[in-house]
């Protein structure tokens, strides 16, 4: 069965697309991508002769019509999304329209920027007894968020948090984070992680707006805050029980 494939392109490095996603792009006759977000390097996996369509200026209706026309010609269609399609990908509305048209589709997941940022920073968001929760969220802007999910409410938990799509609202973000994590808490701004232009800047929350302006970061950046950012390799106090010699589990008996 010829299915339309929604493919997570990953954070930008063309080698951080999954093997399954890479194969889908290589076999596609039509690749529809958002040129303002998907780096051109990812498109190098497309075969010679494949039609590459930039959807940056297209409406939902135009995107669906383009997919429909290509699919009806029996072409293999890939709708390429940055990161993982399930996170701020506006993918569900596209799937809903294809469902109405009885056009079959499936989804190939990808790596979201928060995980590429963690790899670059060499951190673990869920260090034992430091943080066991990671919140992925955004500041309310032109796109509202449910009241119970406002940034202040989520920040009150003081969990590890990656704030997407909010760098243009950095003053408001800094104000909220200062109240709940403290002005001296360390946060990071991760810009275009995994791409050649990658930049990760560390700053106290109090200096976050000034730092963003100084570094001229205006888009495609995450704001990451977590207690793990203040835990260096030399100051690690707590370790997982998984590899503790005194801890028994299904596959190993305690040595002590």
| Oligomeric organization of the protein chains | single chain
Rg measurement, Å: 21 Å
**Distance between the first and last residues' Cα:** 57 Å
Largest sheet entry: 5 strands, parallel
Please state the overall shape, judged from the principal axes of the Cα atoms. Answer: elongated
- Give, in spatial order, the strands making up the sheet with the most strands: 3-2-4-1-5
**Mean pLDDT value:** 91
Beta-strand residue percentage: 15-25%
What's the SSE pattern? EHEEHEHEHEHEHEEHE
Helix content: 25-40%
Label the structural class: alpha/beta
Number of helices: 7
| Regions with little confidence, pLDDT below 50 for 5+ residues | none
Beta strands, count: 10
What does this 3D model show about the protein?
This protein has 256 residues and is α/β, with parallel strands linked by helices. The protein contains seven helices and ten strands. The strands form two sheets. It has a five-stranded parallel sheet, with helices on both faces. Strand 6, helix 5 and strand 7 form a beta-alpha-beta unit. Helix 2 crosses helix 3. The radius of gyration is 21 Å and the shape is elongated. The model has no long low-confidence stretch (mean pLDDT 91).
């Amino acid at each position: 069965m010829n299915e339309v494939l929604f493919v997570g392109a990953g954070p930008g490095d063309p080698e951080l697309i999954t093997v399954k996603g890479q194969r889908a792009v290589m076999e596609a006759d039509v690749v529809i991508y958002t040129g303002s977000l998907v780096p051109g390097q990812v498109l190098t996996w497309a075969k010679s002769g494949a039609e590459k369509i930039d959807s940056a200026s297209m409406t939902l209706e135009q995107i669906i019509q383009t997919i429909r026309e290509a699919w009806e010609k029996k072409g293999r269609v890939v709708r390429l999304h940055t990161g993982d399609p399930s996170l701020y990908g506006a993918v569900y509305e596209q799937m809903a329209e294809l469902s109405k048209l009885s056009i079959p589709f499936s989804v190939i997941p990808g790596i979201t920027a928060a995980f590429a940022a963690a790899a670059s920073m060499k951190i673990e968001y869920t260090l034992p007894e430091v943080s066991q929760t990671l919140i992925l969220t955004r500041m309310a802007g032109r796109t509202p968020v449910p009241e119970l999910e406002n940034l202040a409410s989520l920040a009150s938990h003081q969990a590890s948090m990656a704030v997407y799509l909010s760098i243009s609202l950095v003053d408001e973000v800094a104000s909220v984070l200062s109240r709940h994590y403290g002005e001296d808490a360390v946060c990071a701004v991760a810009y275009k992680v995994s791409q050649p232009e990658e930049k990760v800047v560390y700053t106290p929350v109090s200096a976050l707006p000034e730092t963003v302006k100084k570094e001229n970061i205006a888009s495609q950046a995450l704001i990451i805050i977590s207690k793990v950012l203040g835990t260096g390799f030399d100051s690690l106090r707590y370790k997982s029980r998984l590899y503790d010699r005194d801890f028994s589990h299904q596959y190993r008996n305690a040595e002590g």
